[in-house]
Automatic annotation (TrEMBL):
InterPro entries: HDACs (IPR000286), His_deacetylse_dom (IPR023801), His_deacetylse_dom_sf (IPR037138), Ureohydrolase_dom_sf (IPR023696). SUPFAM superfamilies: Arginase/deacetylase. GO terms for biological process: epigenetic regulation of gene expression. This is Acetoin utilization deacetylase AcuC-like enzyme.
Amino acid sequence: MMRLFFDPRQLDHAPAQELHNGAFVPYAETPARAQALCAGVHATESPTDHGEAPILAVHDAGYVAYLKTAYDRWLAAGRSGDVMGYIWPVVRRRALDLTRIDALAGRYSMDSSTPLTADSWTSAYWSTQSALSALDAVLAGDRVATALCRPPGHHAGADYLGGYCFINQAAVAAQAARDAGIARVAILDIDYHHGNGTQDIFWDRGDVFYASVHADPATDFPFYWGHADEVGEGAGEGTTLNLPLPHGTTIAAFRAAQATALDAIARFDPGLLIVSFGADTFEGDPIANFALKTSDYAMLARDIAATGLPTVVLTEGGYAVDNLGENLASFLSGF
Ligand code: Q9C
Ligand code: ZN
């Protein structure tokens, strides 16, 4: 039986609303998503606590301090509700040691769709511990293990949150695997959205391969990353592979793109594969525009399993809550 990790503290983070296309709407990345993921699988195990060190091996210390203190700073500034920035330092400025919450919220975020609550750090921390525990299982010899990562991670960079993500679980697990002695790690990202945070973190590194199949950023979030000509830089040149696809994509084209990614990963010859699995490629997803069916996920997983690589599966997006459990179950059935 495949081991699955989840901690109930991952349910605590519950922002009220997000800014979407010019209006406040209910937050799509709900605790109900985690309940649906759990309902889709057999019983989960609690993760073991690996502490903050594996998080700090990827994320900036000032950013981690921000995640832990932002809500209290927000209250201290006389605010109520969730922390949201309204100004971003997109014009390159000096690195300033600012303390006002609004300056920090801009400095440490990429968008306005990721409010930070009193519980965000705790939920993201345990989501990350679940990922690290799944990694432990695979390092100990399991062929595959899964973490139900909610909140998700692939949009979070070394020093920024965004896209419903605070800590990048795939990146933290990849770095932990490197630190455990695995020379080369590959990340396959099949969430609907490009994993800009993961790409940024390993952009100039030759030891971690990042391959992503996703909606064309010309039309979809996160817009500024994930174009086909982004291949990495320096030691990382050639270890980033982006395979954007158009709205309406069905399993045939998605599976072919994933095969291209898996071929490139096989050539990289990693000792471990981490899969960022998003079910927001589903035909019924309310915030996305691909058309995969529930049974398609089993086929994608069988293709991944055919690589023979030790594999850690981490969940990312997927907002058709009523179908999320069965979509995850279909995917996991393919291993
Ligand atoms: N205001 C994941 O699937 N929505 N994140 C943008 C524009 C953000 C999705 C709304 C979508 C992020 C993990
Ligand atoms: Zn997504």
